[in-house]
Amino acid sequence: MTWKEAQAFCRANQADLATVDSMEDHVRLLESINRTDVSVWLGLTKSKTKRWMWSEGIGTVTATRWRSTKFADDSYGVEHYTLHTKLMSWRAAQTFCRQHYTDLASETTEAQHVNVYRSGQHKYVWIGLFRDSWTWSDQSTGSFRNWHKGMPDDAGGRQNCARIATAFKNQWDDVSCANKYPFVCNNIQLNEDTCGGKRLIRFHLP
Ligand SMILES: [Ca+2]
């Protein structure tokens, strides 16, 4: 089906197109697909407005420390930050962090900012903040992205929907929404706090 048809199909069944909020979610989706020769729609589509978010997938940016802006320190946790002095692009740094650690550092509290800042004497350090206009069909605000290298590239200028493509190491690629692929629906009725089983995923191969 096209992306729109797939979305309508899921919604007619009390669900929505698949949302992926973390690497674990991504792996779970791949397991449910269990095929090595397909492209599958994701519930991700390009919108007109861009917003800032965290690479780690922790949703919208609520407290940002743009030059001299103060915000409240409202949470505690044990976090470790490791500074890498090798110079890289933001995307290369993200890939590196995901391979060796968890992700680029998020700074949602003053304490985290201090930790990131203290981790080195460098004038400029990448953090996990990025801006894009992609949004989930189910209106959730998850900011986890797993684009293949060089994607989204908007090849041809009309690539407004996202697929998981085995040809791209199971990572994400932007394509025309009129392409026809199988798809996965997330059941949105399921309780989020059910241990382990976050979502029921139903898969539709032609
Ligand atoms: Ca593309």
UniProtKB/TrEMBL annotation:
<dbReference type="InterPro" id="IPR001304">
    <property type="entry name" value="C-type_lectin-like"/>
</dbReference>
<protein>
    <submittedName>
        <fullName>Lectin-like</fullName>
    </submittedName>
</protein>
<dbReference type="InterPro" id="IPR018378">
    <property type="entry name" value="C-type_lectin_CS"/>
</dbReference>
<keyword id="KW-1015">Disulfide bond</keyword>
<dbReference type="Pfam" id="PF00059">
    <property type="entry name" value="Lectin_C"/>
</dbReference>
<dbReference type="InterPro" id="IPR016187">
    <property type="entry name" value="CTDL_fold"/>
</dbReference>
<dbReference type="InterPro" id="IPR016186">
    <property type="entry name" value="C-type_lectin-like/link_sf"/>
</dbReference>
<feature type="domain" description="C-type lectin">
    <location>
        <begin position="76"/>
        <end position="186"/>
    </location>
</feature>
<feature type="domain" description="C-type lectin">
    <location>
        <begin position="1"/>
        <end position="66"/>
    </location>
</feature>
